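wait is this the right file?? whatever heres the structure
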């Protein structure tokens, strides 16, 4: 399911004249530059759409948002001499975002998604607009973009107004870690601000770029987390002397969900070298181990259709109106509606939170000597008399419960909270951007749970090995390499110490996808 990252190993992704992948958006978000397609046919098509808009404007044709007001004000005509000022007003009156600004990585993903949509050639913008957005990415001059204020239809209007403003030299950009006025920063980088043409502010703002950029980042994080949860399950099964027959290929063949079978196969590979001597310790392990493929498999089976919908949105023209340069038609519709992204994000956060809950239950088994089948209470590595004053992972388990509970609380589907707004013109909206933000928060919490389980399950494995009946030769290569990679960053917990630094270091490894997983 993972695709190669050409942007990581070759050149920056080319935008325009081709489809963009989730991985390429993530590479751009991570700092890789972007290149605008330089093929003459691509440039000519973009210019043709802008020229068509200019001709309509000169002929005093009616175009929504060009010669009319916006939204419910579409019945208000705008004279030719004021049409050039209209996009400036659209950009300015939408400058009302609140909340924390999107991170630099998120902002780069958003810019990449907007650029990809405009480059489809159905938005009636000039090539210079695409060049300027590309230049912002290349120079890493990123709009300060507040994260709150979009209902996900008519697109991500308010947050994307900050991109439109920066292109005109207004508001602020991040320059390194410093927030500076956009005008001087653009000048210092040799980027001339532009006066937006009549359709261009609407084309920038009236689309799904914010939710789509965030969804690209969420997809990759969820994919990796599902793989990590499978490895953690294998470690937990080994450490608790679980029954490997729960992952038998014949068992899973009779319930052929592809993702569920994929997870079972991964875990089966991790358990393959364990000695098969006599009957297993238990006929049936608890659900958090025995049913792990069924829980993780839900996300694995959902990821393909989520990728399909995210990449469809990414590679679509999703503003309004659509300008068809081939048929020379203006098509008024609702492609700014982010329903597919909203639904994918609501589904993803639900499946991810369920994985966090699964791992929370696994940790509860690992730390409790009534259920961990011979491991020390709280996975303490202390020995002898000092064992009485050491408490191992006791507080970590409390933290994991807190993070899991918060993740589960955030699974309420945002798509169920559509509100009628803007004089009942926007009377059914997707809430896709809030759904994407919620999804990323759930993923963040689940990753914290995952980091804690990485440390706890690795500790449990080594404590079991310390008992002398689990030699290294009985561990699969992937398990050994994973254990060694974790231990290269964090020492075994032999004596109580504050674990925050260890958790943060492990979390950084997780979010950097540092471990090779299946």
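ok assuming it is, sequence goes like this
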């Amino acid at each position: 399911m993972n695709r190669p990252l050409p942007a990581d190993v070759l050149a920056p992704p080319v935008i325009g004249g081709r489809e963009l992948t989730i991985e390429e958006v993530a590479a751009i978000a991570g700092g890789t530059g972007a290149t605008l397609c330089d093929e003459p046919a691509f440039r000519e098509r973009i210019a043709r759409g802008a020229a068509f808009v200019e001709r309509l404007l000169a002929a005093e044709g009616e175009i929504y948002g060009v010669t009319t007001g916006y939204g419910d004000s579409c019945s208000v005509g705008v004279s030719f001499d004021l049409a050039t000022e209209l996009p400036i007003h659209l950009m300015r009156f939408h400058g009302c975002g609140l909340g924390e600004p999107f991170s630099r990585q998120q902002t780069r993903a958003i810019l990449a998604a907007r650029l990809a949509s405009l480059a489809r050639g159905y938005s009636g913008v000039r090539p210079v607009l695409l060049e300027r957005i590309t230049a912002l990415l290349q120079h890493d001059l990123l709009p300060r973009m507040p994260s709150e204020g979009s209902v996900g239809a008519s697109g991500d209007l308010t947050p994307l107004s900050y991109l439109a403003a920066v292109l005109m030299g207004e508001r602020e950009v991040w320059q390194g870690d410093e927030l500076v006025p956009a005008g001087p920063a653009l000048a210092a980088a040799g980027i001339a601000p532009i006066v937006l043409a009549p359709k261009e502010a609407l084309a920038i703002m009236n689309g799904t770029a914010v939710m789509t950029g965030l969804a690209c980042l969420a997809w990759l994080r969820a994919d990796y987390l599902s793989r990590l949860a499978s490895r953690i399950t294998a470690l937990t099964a080994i450490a608790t002397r679980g029954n490997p027959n729960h992952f038998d290929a014949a068992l899973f063949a009779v319930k052929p969900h592809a993702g569920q079978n994929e997870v079972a196969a991964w875990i089966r590979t991790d358990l393959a070298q364990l000695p098969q001597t006599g009957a297993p310790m238990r006929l049936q392990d608890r659900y958090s181990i025995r049913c792990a493929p069924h829980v993780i498999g839900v996300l694995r089976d959902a990821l393909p259709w989520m990728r399909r919908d995210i990449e469809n949105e990414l590679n679509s023209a999703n503003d309004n109106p659509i300008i068809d340069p081939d048929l020379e038609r203006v098509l008024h519709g609702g492609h700014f509606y982010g329903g597919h992204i909203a639904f994918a994000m609501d589904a993803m956060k639900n499946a991810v939170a369920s994985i966090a809950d699964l791992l929370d239950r696994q940790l509860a088994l690992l730390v409790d000597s009534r259920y961990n089948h011979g491991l020390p209470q709280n996975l303490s590595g202390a020995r002898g008399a000092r064992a009485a004053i050491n408490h191992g992972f006791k507080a970590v388990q409390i933290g994991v419960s807190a993070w899991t509970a918060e993740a589960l609380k955030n699974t309420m589907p945002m798509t169920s909270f559509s509100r009628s707004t803007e004089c009942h013109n926007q009377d059914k909206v997707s809430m896709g951007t809030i759904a994407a933000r919620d999804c990323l928060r759930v993923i963040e919490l689940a990753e914290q749970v995952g980091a804690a389980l990485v440390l706890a399950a690795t500790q449990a494995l080594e404590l079991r090995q310390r008992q002398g009946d689990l030699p290294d030769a009985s561990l699969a290569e992937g398990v050994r390499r994973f254990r060694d990679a974790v231990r290269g960053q964090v020492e075994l917990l032999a004596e109580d110490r504050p674990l925050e630094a260890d958790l943060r270091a492990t979390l950084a490894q997780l979010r950097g996808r540092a471990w090779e997983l299946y």
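The beta strands are 14-15, 35-36, 98-101, 142-143, 146-148, 172-175, 178-181, 322-324, 329-331. so i think its the right one actually
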